[in-house]
Specification:
- By secondary structure, this protein is mainly beta.
- Helices cover 10% and strands 33% of the residues.
- The protein has four helices and 22 strands.
- The protein has helices spanning 4-24, 60-63, 334-342, 349-355, and strands at 42-49, 66-73, 78-85, 98-101, 112-120, 134-136, 152-154, 165-167, 183-186, 192-195, 212-222, 225-232, 246-251, 257-258, 272-275, 278-283, 298-306, 316-320, 327-331, 358-365, 371-378, 384-388.
- Strands 1, 2, 3, 4, 5, 9, 10 and 11 form an eight-stranded mixed beta sheet that branches. Strands 16-17-12-20-21-22 form a six-stranded mixed beta sheet, covered by helices on one side.
- β2 (66-73) and β3 (78-85) form a beta hairpin.
- It is elongated, with a radius of gyration of 31 Å.
- The N and C termini lie far apart (121 Å).
Length: 392
Amino acid sequence: MKSLGSKNSLINILLGIATATGMAGCDLMHDDLLPCATDPKVTTVVNFVYDYNMDGEDLFDRQVGSVYLYVFDENGVFVSRHVKSKQDLDPENPDFSMTFDNNASEIQMGHTYQFVAVASSTMEYDESDDTPGFKLVNEMVPGVSTINDYILKLNRDDKMFSDFGVVDYTQDYSAPDAMIDTLWTTKPDEVQVHTIPYLKAAFDSTDQIPDHVEEVKIPMMRITNSIDVAVTSTKIKADTNPANYDILIYFPNGNGTIDFVGETLTDISQPLYYRALRKSVRPYNDNNGTRADDEQQYAIYATFGVSRLKYDDGACLQVRDPVTHEIIAQIENFSQYLNDRGNTEYDDPQEYLDREYEFRINIGLTDTDHLWWTQVGIGIHDWAVKDWYIGL
């Protein structure tokens, strides 16, 4: 058994250690001691960039109406969804960035997350829809759904057809300048994966760790295209009914069922026919390349809004007889055709098709409604490339 003196000696030793520790430590209650360090503030700031276009200029804040941020954990399990709309922002200087306090949000310190985003040109949004044109197929349930459950499907009429769908927005987008809502997805292979650092002040320390901002920048890609088609021949007059020619764009592998990076999900896609948003007869503009007769030429102009073009998608531009459905003229491998005649800057044809989104196609028919020539123009550029199919 230890003596009382031994116990007192042990107590004195412990008191001495405690006193020395207190003198070297910190205390917020005494002016003669340095304050203890506090936990640093850790925040995550998510920004969205759309400079993957022909100009290389970031147009996100200028063109986007609403953005949808999806957060998944390191295993691809859905964590949360966040929406920001331009209608709630400063119209002169909209800022779509999103900031999360990692001490008070579901994005926690010490965890790894995958950040993906989808954006729309519309400024109004509905909780069940990502855009009026594209619908979210599966409900995303936090803690249950995975990143592979995120599927967008373009509205189409497939009730009357068993083997293909028809995308027809004639009633919705018949106004002269109307176009289907633009959709942006995260660029392929650029889903952002970030580990939020776990930062805490050491116990009883005066060493203050600085605040940390985890910056997440999501590169976006536009996946909707505007395509203007002009069909001209000497048979087309000012009073010609545009319905006399059925102008379609056909995707045999589909292109209206996509994932979070705009890739077509071919295993669950159906072939799609796109109808023109609107058609009209107007005087023909020869675009500095086609033959111009003394007599005024007319053309049937058709405007399309289509989902992402892929170089190897086998798409086909068709002009059909509306009664017999016979193909009058067609451009096979249409996406490849657009690249081969319009791409002068990029070695990768897919990069060109993803950056460019406004195409102009002219088709000349003979008097017997056979393909005569085609011409392609890109966006607002003042040049065109012409292919002659039948000599004069």
